[in-house]
């Protein structure tokens, strides 16, 4: 079994004239990330690996979740290739994960995330919101072979307010 929890970065700020990759989280995003993280302990596996886009907003979101999960921040793997909005690139990255990881938590970006969970999950999601979490399970022992996953959990900040 392979389990993937995929999380869209929290709400980011457009206030400063920065490159897209350098945009930080805004206050609402920080609060929403903590809210979702605090309410997801019950379905997060005991052992997992965190991968994140290297974009500032995604890496900050990953660190918030890691802190809430008592996961060592230094163990997060920041992958520049996860800074993508293309679901086929995201799929290729996920399918290349080391099979030693049965449980992965991934932080990234839309449209890639929404399109990926709709292609591989069994529940249609119109849009994965910022700080939105989708948990998928695949009946395989090889990331390369993932297909027809089961959507186990969908959790958005609006569900908790």
Summarize the structure in short:
With 161 residues, the chain is an alpha/beta fold. It has helices at 27-38, 56-68, 87-95, 112-120, and strands spanning 2-8, 49-53, 77-79, 103-108, 133-138, 150-155.
Quaternary organisation: single chain
| CATH homologous superfamily grouping | Phosphoglycerate mutase-like
- Could you give a short account of the major beta sheet? 6 strands, mixed
Count of discrete domains: 1
How many helices does DSSP assign? 4
Count of DSSP strands? 6
Distance linking N and C termini: 33 Å
The H-and-E topology, N to C, reads as EHEHEHEHEE
Radius of gyration: 14 Å
Structure class: alpha/beta
Q: Averaged pLDDT, please?
A: 96
Overall spatial form: globular
Helix content: 25-40%
Indicate the CATH class.
Alpha Beta
CATH architecture annotation name: 3-Layer(aba) Sandwich
Q: Runs with pLDDT <50, length 5+?
A: none
The CATH topology is given as: Rossmann fold
The spatial strand order of the largest sheet comes to 3-2-4-1-5-6
> Which percent range describes the beta-strand content?
15-25%
